[in-house]
Design brief:
about 65% helix; mainly alpha; EF-hand domain-containing protein; 2 domains; signal; EF_Hand_1_Ca_BS; EF-hand-dom_pair; EF_hand_dom
């Protein structure tokens, strides 16, 4: 049986999958001739009566087909995720099943973290070594070098 938390979480996951399904991935580099070719094919597909124009009805039909295709993809992804979570295959998620995938896990082992910070490889991390990586990241984000990282600078740094 779904709890409110479980339903809300599945709903949020489905919403995120839907947004991802509707937003196509950006190509590495756009070539104008390919772009024009795709536009022409898209126009021809939308122009159902082949009169050289797209009417509001044809636009609505094209949008409805796109939404239906995206919804099918979302439904399949949500179903697959649900089936993964439903480990006892009884068609519902228990709190235990949900909690099994909602665990916080370490990103790296202590040895990996030590190796990352221990730049002089002496088996321990000094204060300078501990501060070096985060300070370097701060300095890279502070693009105008004013000693402050604004939200805009944070956003730019996060997108790199």
């Amino acid at each position: 049986m779904f709890t409110r938390l479980t339903f809300a979480t599945v709903f949020l996951a489905a919403t995120a999958v839907a947004a991802q399904a509707q937003a196509p991935a950006a190509p590495e580099a756009a070539v104008r001739t390919e772009f024009v070719k795709n536009l022409e094919a898209s126009f021809d597909k939308a122009d159902a009566n082949n009169d050289g124009f797209i009417t509001a009805q044809e636009m609505q039909s094209m949008e409805a087909k796109g939404i239906a295709a995206a919804q099918e993809k979302v439904d399949a992804q949500v179903t697959a995720q649900f089936q993964k979570l439903d480990t006892d295959k009884n068609g519902s998620l228990s709190l235990a099943e949900f909690k099994a995938v909602a665990k916080v896990k370490a990103n790296a082992s202590p040895q990996d973290l030590l190796a990352k910070f221990d730049t002089n490889k002496d088996g321990k991390v000094s204060k300078a070594e501990y501060q070096a990586l985060p300070l370097a990241a701060f300095d890279r984000a502070d693009t105008n070098k004013d000693g402050k990282v604004t939200r805009e600078e944070q956003a730019k740094a996060a997108s790199r």
